[in-house]
Design goal:
Blueprint: H1 2-5, E1 9-14, H2 16-25, E2 32-37, E3 46-52, E4 64-71, H3 79-87, E5 96-101, E6 105-111, H4 112-121, E7 124-125, E8 128-135, E9 147-154, H5 159-167, H6 171-179, E10 183-185, E11 188-189, E12 202-205, E13 209-219, E14 225-232
Antiparallel strand pairs: 1-3, 2-3, 4-6, 4-8, 5-6, 7-8, 9-14, 10-11, 10-12, 12-13, 13-14
Helix pairs in contact: 5-6
């Protein structure tokens, strides 16, 4: 489509696993510039844009708008509350990107064609009255990612060894999690316990959360290795 019309083409919002599949499996040929963007740098859900060779990708070209949702009185609302109310207006999940939840306000990144519709129709979240309006996404401050540092000792940098060390499980329990499809590396489910991790790999474990592998730093006397992992919180 980009080639046919000589203009940028965009997907809907893709989750991290879908983005990983595109990066791994789909080769975009010479003559195109590509970029992922979700409304702000570091967004987990992002739109995939394909631009002609002569056009440099620009964030402003992406069909994304931000909707600010403000509570009319103080009541705790979760990400799930905001998302459910947005989807109840007939919006599909693929049309909604990240939702940044603050104390009394939330910002939802939405495909541009639907943003005004959401802002016009979103009046309540559960029993809580809200005001919704389209705002300039460039003015929104991205949330600061927080981590819990985990230092541990592992037999090696194999996936099963690192998973066991960071979760304080036995090697057998870690292997069972992996073979059961409960572990993803860089957002792709893997059942290969013997895979060697690299610094910067993201490990997601069902029921335990998401971790960033920061590498190893020397051996113990028993020839095990010191590893550092950051848990997303």
């Amino acid at each position: 489509m980009c080639d046919k019309y000589c203009e940028p083409q965009f997907s809907f919002f893709l989750n991290e696993a879908e983005q990983a599949v595109i990066k791994r499996e789909i080769g975009v040929g010479y003559g195109y510039n590509c970029r992922y963007f979700g409304g702000y740098e570091g967004a987990r859900r992002a739109v995939f844009g394909v631009f002609p060779q002569w056009q440099e990708p620009d964030d402003k070209d992406f069909p994304i708008k931000a909707v600010r949702i403000t509570k009319t009185y103080s009541k705790e609302l979760t990400h799930r509350d905001y998302l459910g109310s947005i989807l109840s207006n007939g919006i599909t999940r693929e049309q909604v990107g990240d939702i940044i939840v603050e104390e009394n306000t939330a910002y939802a990144f939405i495909i541009a064609d639907m943003a005004d519709f959401v802002a016009m129709n979103l009046k309540k979240i559960g029993n809580t009255g809200v005001k919704a309006e389209v705002v300039d996404a460039a003015q929104i401050k991205p949330p600061e990612q927080k981590f819990q540092i985990i230092n541990a000792v592992a037999a090696s940098e194999r996936l099963d060894a690192v998973t066991a060390a960071m979760l304080k499980l036995s090697r057998r329990e870690a292997s069972a999690l992996i073979s059961g499809g409960g572990v993803s590396v860089n957002h792709i489910v893997t059942e290969a316990a013997s895979n060697t991790l690299k610094e910067g790999d993201v490990i997601s474990v069902r029921g335990h959360g998401r971790y960033l592998f920061c590498g190893s730093s020397g051996e113990t006397r028993s020839q095990r290795i010191h590893i550092t992992v950051k848990k997303y919180i």
